[in-house]
Amino acid sequence: MVPVFCFYSVIGVFFWFMFESHEPKIIPVIAQETSAQTKSLDPSISTVSIPEDASDKKIKDEIIHIPLPDEVRGLYWNAATPGTSTLSDRIDFLTNHGLNTIVIDLKMDNGELAFVPLDSTLTLYTQSHPSVENIEQVLTSLAEKNIYRIARIPIMRDNTYARKHPEYTLKYFNGSLWQDRIGSLWLDPAVPQVSEYAIALAKEAYARGFDEVQFDYVRFPSDGSVLSIVYPVYDGIRSKVEVMADLFAHLGNTMQEAKIPVSFDLFGMTFWSTNDYNIGQRLLDAYPHADFVSPMVYPSHYPAGFRGYANPALYPYDIVKSSLDKGAEQLFTETGMKEEETRVHFRPWIQAFDIGAVYGSDRLTAQIQAARDAGASGWILWNARNMYRSMDYTLSGEGDLNRE
Fold it and tell me: If you write DSSP's letter for every residue of 344-402 in order, what string do you get?
């Protein structure tokens, strides 16, 4: 194992606050309010056969896949939410508020799979008592309401896989498992088995009925004692950008060859710069291998003074719109791709939690309108607690916006 030192580690704390785990683990104050195009996706309904080893399962021989909505209006559920008694009410919330897409974690926060996989190579990583006992029933219930279903798969941050395979896991110099600022374990992006696990899980998800797979944590770690990391395979000879570019290509191309729609979650700052911020992640390398890219453009996660705003959270329209604009400009400047062709492959994560400011319907509306004005194909709400405000997310009947 070779120790690799991180030149930019001094900014690790800054980027951890901005982007780590989508949202800092702060309980937000929630108050209920009453009230495109694609590169390779076929908008028609398709079917996929269940793997042979599922023959003894009481599931359908074929799975119906929901067509991609013209505008994705989505929100996020953690892995436990679909297994709760509130599932029916939560599905009603989607349909009653103009939402048409759900992103569901396949893993618990500790990396354990929250459902029983049919692929026997994945059972090692499953909860002893899976939170979701019947994933087909959940997906069928969503399909009956014409909800587009996306499986979110975090890759490098995974305590369960790391403990099962310490030989693929980042370590300290003394040989103990390295931890980031919140105690999570990380995998080496240069280890082929890590990406193959993610691919196997993605194929399982699509075969079970998900309509798209979304990869997250496709990067090197950004916070914690990064100077202390010993990588089992990555040796620093190749740059982190090169390692991650190869990984984006492998993941994306494998999914597209299997005709599985794929998207990548990215740091919001990847749209502002070609700098990889020492995590290897760049928009330029992810975009060519995805049907969609989802930057995390939460206004509260930009630093004080960004674009001259003392508190960027108070300017949701400008932060979201300008971030997406910068991404389109970057792709045009660096590759010559026309902005009208690239913007439709942007699908940002937007803020639905109260950090930096209270995010009521006005600020939610501002972000949604910003995504539309930037030419994005949709947007997804993030709230770690899965608590979302009641409002008309189609914005039908909305008048002029207060953009601050």
Answer: GGB--EEE-S-SSS---HHHHHHHHHHHHHTT-SEEEEE-TT-----S-TT-TT--S--
Residue 112 vs residues 78, 107, 144, 189: alpha-carbon distances, Å: 12, 5, 28, 19
Closest CA to 140 of 131, 128, 149: 149
3-state secondary structure of 322: helix
Residue 266 CA to residue 339 CA, distance in Å, equals 19
Tokens, residue 148: 């587009």
389's tokens: 């405000």
pTM of the model as a whole? 0.86
d(C-alpha 19, C-alpha 281), whole Å? 13
Two structure tokens written together for 27: 């309980």
Listed residue (75, 73, 143, 126) closest to 352, CA to CA: 75
Tokens, residue 404? 């601050």
| 23-46 residue pLDDT tens | 433 322 222 232 333 333 333 333
Q: Is residue 140 part of a domain?
A: yes
Residues 6+ apart with CB under 8 A from 89: none
Residue with tokens 């100077």: 227
194: CB partners within 8 A, 6+ apart: 155, 156, 161, 168, 187, 188
Q: Assess if residue 37 is contained within a domain.
A: no
**Measured distance CA(14)–CA(184) in Å, rounded:** 18
- How does pLDDT run across 127-148, given as a tens digit for each residue? 999 999 999 999 999 999 999 9
What does the block give as tokens for 395?
A: 């914005």
Amino acid at 390: S
AA identity, residue 155: I
Residue 45 placed within a domain: no
| Token digits of residue 290 | 């995805």
395 within domain boundaries: no
Range of the domain at 223: 2-25+50-382
Closest CA to 106 of 127, 137, 124, 87: 127
Query: If you compute the radius of gyration of the chain from its CA atoms, what whole number of angstroms results?
Result: 20
Run of H or E residues at 258: none
Residue with tokens 């009641």: 390
Residue 213 in contact with residue 162, Cβ under 8 Å? no
Q: Indicate the number of domains in the chain.
A: 1
Q: What is the CATH number of the domain that holds 178?
A: 3.20.20.80
